[in-house]
Structures are given as structure tokens and as C-alpha cells.
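Please think about what follows:
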Amino acid sequence: MALTAEAQSSGESSFPPSPKLLRKVFHWEYWPASIANLPVALIWFWYALRARDPFFFTAVNPAVSTGGLFGESKLDILRQMPEALIPVTVLAPRGAPWVDVREKLVSAGLSYPLIAKPNVGERGFLVAKLDEEEALREHLQQYPVDFLLQEFIDYPEEASVFHYRLPNGAGSAVTSLCLKKHLTV
């Protein structure tokens, strides 16, 4: 290792390494994502070869297309739930005439505010709380995708529930329950 002329003259050395450098080397959180994910990629590759399917892991959630990895229809998932647990929901297909959308809202008894969310999407992308008819019309025109229009439910808390059921129906359990909190500063 070559030292700069300045370091040589001052007698400085980079040995032993500083605690900060050691932390960056031995704690994966500081590594570039490509390096940190390399072990995961190798394991995935091995399992994909064994299963002869690059999407082998989607089998853990067979009731949802692609196992819920991407591209699943929210409407298809809602149809699998007990009706009493589903908010009033209307599908507004992409490009549907406004009169048809409005008629569906009226016949379902939906009023404003309501929630518009893409039927296929994730992490809140294009989800909007809309307070009036004109805002809904603009939203549907601006984003040409199938939308689910749902009643706005104003509860003080929101929770995520992780539930599993064994394939043979022998058992199921709730393994975690998390209250969702919005970031505040």
C-alpha cells in the first residue's frame, strides 16, 4: 500500500483501521446493494435450479396470482374475503364512460369522500382520497388504468395482520399484528 507524500512525512498510517472503517466493512447495512444482495441471489439461483422454476417461491401463496409478488388484482383478492369484511367497492374499468362509472357509484350507494386505487399496483401508487366528483373524473382521466373505488373508512387505527393456513387445512394462525403509524416529524 503506497502512502501519499503527506502521510509519509507526517508518519500517519491507515493501520490499524479506524472503527468507522471496520464498521463499514463488517456491517452489511453499509455495503452497496449489489454486494449485500449477492448471497440472496446465489441462494435464489440454487433453489430456482432445484425447482426448475425461477418463481418457485410463489407457491407459498397459491390463492393469489404470482403468489403476490407483483401484478396481482386487488379485486380478485377481495373476492376471496368474507363479504362483511370488504368495504363497498366498485370497479371503474380503464376508459369507461363517465356516465357508467357514475351509475355504478349511485347503484352501490357510494358517496364522497371515497378512495380510488388501481386494481393492480403497490405501495400506495396512484391511491387517492377524493372529496368530490370532479376530482374523481380528473383522476380517472389522468391515469388510464382500472381503478377500484371504495368507501372511505375513517377509523383511528390501521393494522396489518399476518395469517397463514396450512395447505391441507390442518391449521392456521395469526403470527403477527402490527399497528400502522404514519411518519411524523
